[in-house]
What we know:
The protein is α/β, with parallel strands linked by helices and about 290 residues long. It has helices at about 5-15, 90-105, 145-155, 170-185, 215-220, 260-265, 270-290, and strands spanning about 70, 75, 120, 135, 140-145, 160-165, 190-195, 235-240, 250-255. The strands form two sheets. A seven-stranded mixed sheet has the order 3-1-4-6-9-8-7. The protein has a two-stranded antiparallel sheet with strand order 2-5.
Amino acid sequence: MTAFTHRRLIAALAAAVAVAGATAAFAAIGQEPQWRPRIWVGGGGYGRFRRTPPKWATLANFDGSFNFCRAYYSSNRPEAGGSGWDTDFPGADNNFSVRLAELTMVRVKHGVDDQPDYVVVRLTDPLLARCPVLHVEDAGTARFSDADVAALRTYLLKGGFLAVDDFWGTAAWEQWAAEIGRVLPPGQYPIADIPADHPMMHALYDVKKIEQVSSIQFWIRNGGSVSERGSDSPHPNFRGISDPHGRLMVVMAHNTDIPDTWEREGESQEYFDRYSPGGYALGVNIVLYAMTH
C-alpha cells in the first residue's frame, strides 16, 4: 500500500460520504488500519504470482472479524477473460479487505503476516455460515451440484448474502440465472432490477449508478473500451433477489467487472482514478448493507 494511492482514494470518496443513522458507526474516512497490509499488485511486487491455490477456510480463520469469503464452485463452460471461481483472486480479496479497514470501522481479520485473512469456501462447508457475505465471480461458468444448491439455499434463507460479479453477455447471464434459479426458484424469489434509491446504494457512499468497467487488460488492449462482449454487453445490469420480507439476499452486477477496480488499482494511475473510487464505494455499500440487514 502506498500513501499516495491511499490519499487519492480518500479524497475521491470523501465527497460521496452520506453518513446517517445506523451507518454512522461504520464511517471512518481517512483512517489507517492498525496493521500494515500491502496492496496486491499484479505483475510484480506483492502479487507477482498467478493461479494461486485456494486458501481454504478453517475454523481458526473466524474470530468475529470480517473475512472476505469467496465461493469455490465447479465450472462446466469457459468464458473469455475469466478463469472460473478464482477470477481476480487473490488480488481483489486482499485489496478490498485493506480498503474496507481504511474506509470504515469494520474490524477486518488479518494474519500474522499483516495481510487480510481472506478465505475460499466450498458451498457445502458448514463454515459458510460464518461468512456475512459470499462473493462469486465469473458466475456465468458456474455449475452447482445438488448438494451445493441445498447448502446455498440454506445459507441465504438463514440470513446469508451473495454478491455476484464479472459475468458478461447473454450466455453467461442465462447460465447463472438457471443456476441461481435452482437455489431460489424464480416463481417464489424473482430477479428484479435494483433501483438507484435502494438503501444499499446509500449505505455509506452515495452511489447513483453502476459503472460499466472492463478488466484492465481489455481496457488497455481496446483503447479504453469497456464492453467486453461488444453489442452483447451494451450496458451494465444490477439486479437482486429478495426474501419475502424485502431483504436483499443476492446482488448481481452483470456486464461489468467491479472487482478489477480493487485487484488492479496499483497497476495504472489512470485506471485507478477512473474506476477504483466508484468500485470501492459500491463494494463497501454492499458489505455494510449485508452486515446490517
